[in-house]
């Protein structure tokens, strides 16, 4: 019993940490999609530069999940990137409403 409780607490903390990181990443993805839709970036001609597309070298404060979320959105083809570093929503990708 002396070992069981600390191990259970460590496993619980690990699972909670993974859940929190996933939740923050999902919120960052929704923010990016809403931002691109608000800027009307629906095709390569209307692509926009996103200030949070690159992680800051020196950042103080809470972790910013937006650069990694943007990378995941590009990887899974929800957002497309031009060679100049400008982003737009892929063809036909529209938000269905508030999340």
Gyration radius, rounded? 18 Å
Query: Major sheet: order of its strands?
Result: 1-3-2
**Helical run tally:** 2
The portion of residues forming beta strands comes to 5-15%
User: Which whole number gives the mean pLDDT?
Assistant: 88
How far apart are the termini? 43 Å
Task: Kindly give the count of domains.
Answer: 1
Key features of this structure:
mainly alpha; elongated; 99 residues
How would you summarize what this structure contains?
This protein is mainly α and 99 residues long. The chain has one domain.
Structure, described:
By secondary structure, this protein is mainly alpha-helical. It has one domain. The protein is 45% helix and 9% strand. The protein is built from 2 helices and 3 strands. The protein has a 3-stranded antiparallel beta sheet with strand order 1-3-2. Strand 2 and strand 3 form a beta hairpin. The longest helix has 35 residues, at 4-38. The chain is elongated, with a radius of gyration of 18 Å.
Write the layout of secondary structure elements.
Elements: H1 4-38, E1 48-49, H2 66-75, E2 79-81, E3 86-89
Antiparallel strand pairs: 1-3, 2-3
